Amino acid sequence: MDISQITKQLQESISKADNEEALQQVRTDYLGKKGQLTELLKQLSRLPPTERSSQGAALNQLKIQATQDINNKAGLLSQQKMDAELLQDTTDISLPKYGRERGSWHPINTVRKRIENIFNSAGYETVLGPEIETDYYNFEALNFPPQHPARSLHDTFYFSDGRLLRTHTSTGQVRAMETKEPPLAIICPGKTYRCDYDATHSPMFHQLEGMLVDKDVKFTDLKGTLQQFINTFFGREMQLRFRASYFPFTEPSAEVDLLWEIKSSGKKETKWLEVLGCGMVHPNVLKSGNLDPTKYSGFAFGLGIERMAMLYYGIDDLRLFYENDIRFLSQFA
Ligand code: DAH
Fold this sequence. Notes:
The chain is α+β, with helices and mostly antiparallel strands. About 40% of the residues lie in helices and about 20% in strands.
């Protein structure tokens, strides 16, 4: 028996075995109960004592080497098998169980933030007030005495204790004057409520109130501020029209219209759209805020955030904002 012959055969069989079953067969063929090496070891006793010890040592050496080589090859094959499986397998088991879809801001909040940023960067501080208000801050302090006819325009939701859901964010005016000293420049954004519902009215909607009180504030300051704001918001020079109006808490008062371009069937048309209410803070309102109207003056304005969002994004039905339809909302991601 030629040990080097067997060694050569064994090495060839190991390197030819290209999967785990084939390698197992090699193990059985050489090292199994009836394997070649096992048989040879059994036959050692029949050899003459002179050959026995050298042959025995060589065979044992070969057995150790064979075991090691087969194990190494087994390791290699199992690594290759795993690599191939990983290439095939598209499931990454380290991922979380459910797909994570990225949410986005609601368009109303995006527009609110956009407006806030413009005013904040001009030095206006954002203040927030309660949505459940007293009659005082919503009406009386704003120069709507009890029985004032303008109250009926507000379609107010009342609680049985006389409190109400604020009908406008102008409630921020007197609250701000009570806690801050002039010069004061604030914006008060938030939810407002009126009992009204159609394509352009929702019982809950959003407004943003702005107010500036200082010495010598003039109507031209108001005009310049609003023009600058509207230009910045829409990113281009816009044409505004100040139309005389009435609000109990401002005198004089105006409504501001925006010249809006509408493209209908290829033709360009323009239309004046009302975007905000504004005016010079009424002396009675300054008094409600403990300020002397002979010393201080101010302007105020209020805008509807839905209105601004509809113009900004070209949305024609206000109700879309509140339906929570993901197909609508995901367009503003
Ligand atoms: N609060 C008014 C409304 O809800 C909007 C408004 C008008 C606010 C004139 C003002 C203002 O500050 O000066 O219709």
